[in-house]
Design goal:
Length: 341
């Protein structure tokens, strides 16, 4: 496990270095240093602060779904630890969800399946505001074609990403509504992979494992059922989720103000943000959409009429204030959790 994490961290560091090198080369290193010197440091720090509020908002969406009494700060630490894993593993941005459930279960004594039900519910609720904001972005894209010009292959890639995300989201809801189908799917998967698992794990009894998984599914659905009955908590979670997405888009706007680019329109921010985030789901082999999100965001800003050097600089600063800040903070909290565990 330690070797796996170390390999992933190096993988992320190398990709990040390549992205930085390509972006600074596009501007010119000398000009890049001059532009960095002109960046408003208070506004940049304010963008980091907005990102932190964004993370706290998402933590609150999780907090209101947790049945046990736990402090916001402790849950924030678990959320960030999971975010670190999400950012360094190429798993559709979900590799850290089991880690969140495990840490919560260890702290509260709730079964891991019930904790995982809360984590899944939080992710599902976060997707709903993103889809609605994303649809606004796509509507603006196709109703204001003069603002951003995309090639046919780029539009096809975006639509494929949206379709993939909607399919995954719909599959989760389907299994949520049909427990019997989830059980049948899991049992079929275990039977299919049993011969391969047996090559690695001697004496693997797929029947006993199926029974244990069935018990976990019962617990998982019980947790989902409890959350569904918490109507006030669900509405509160959705509200804070919307707040989190809005804060993230606002952070990009503040980044542009920090570099002196004040003519950026809100529609451009929404279009670029939503398409860039969606594009990060497409390459499942890249952790956190690293490289793809950066490139897509910069290109869309350029297509929208933002000067190349400003588009590249704004993208670098935004990813520094969000992705890299979140990764480092998450690594700190995960290290603390492993050290005390």
């Amino acid at each position: 496990m330690e070797r796996f994490r170390a390999r992933n961290i190096w993988y992320v560091a190398v990709i990040g270095a390549v992205v930085f090198a390509v972006f600074t080369h596009e501007i010119g290193f000398g000009k890049f240093m001059i532009l960095m010197g002109n960046v408003s440091k208070p506004l940049l720090m304010f963008a980091v602060f907005l990102n932190l509020l964004n993370l706290i908002s998402y933590t609150v969406t999780w907090l209101v779904l947790v049945s046990e009494d736990i402090s916001l700060y402790k849950l924030f630490k678990f959320y960030m630890a999971g975010t670190f894993i999400n950012n360094i593993t190429p798993a559709f941005g979900t590799g850290g969800e089991p880690v969140k459930a495990m840490l919560l279960g260890k702290e509260t004594g709730i079964s891991k399946a019930e904790c995982f039900a809360g984590v899944v519910s939080q992710r599902m609720l976060n997707m709903f505001p993103f889809f609605t904001i994303g649809m606004i972005g796509m509507w603006l894209l196709f109703t204001k074609p003069r603002q951003i010009q995309l090639a046919n292959w780029q539009i096809a890639a975006i639509l494929f990403s949206i379709g993939l995300a909607v399919f995954a989201f719909g599959l989760i809801i389907y299994f949520y509504l049909r427990k019997d189908k989830l059980s049948s799917f899991v049992q079929s998967a275990i039977r299919f992979f049993a011969p391969f698992i047996g090559l690695v794990k001697k004496g693997f009894d797929h029947k006993a494992y199926t029974a244990a998984v069935e018990e976990s599914i019962d617990s998982f659905h019980g947790g989902l059922r409890d959350i569904r009955h918490n109507k006030y908590g669900l509405w509160k979670a959705i509200l804070f989720s919307y707040f989190g997405w809005i804060l993230d888009i606002l952070a990009i706007y503040i980044i542009f103000l920090s570099i002196g680019e004040t003519d950026i329109h809100i529609s451009i921010l929404i279009i670029t943000y939503t398409i860039a985030m969606i594009s990060g789901w497409l390459p499942l082999f890249l952790p956190g959409g690293l490289g793809i999100v950066d490139g897509t965001m910069a290109i869309l800003f350029i297509y929208a009429g933002v000067p190349v050097e400003m588009a590249v600089l704004a993208t670098l600063l935004y990813r520094l204030a969000s992705y890299w800040f979140n990764t480092v903070l998450g690594a700190f909290y995960l290290w603390g959790a492993l050290k005390t565990g």
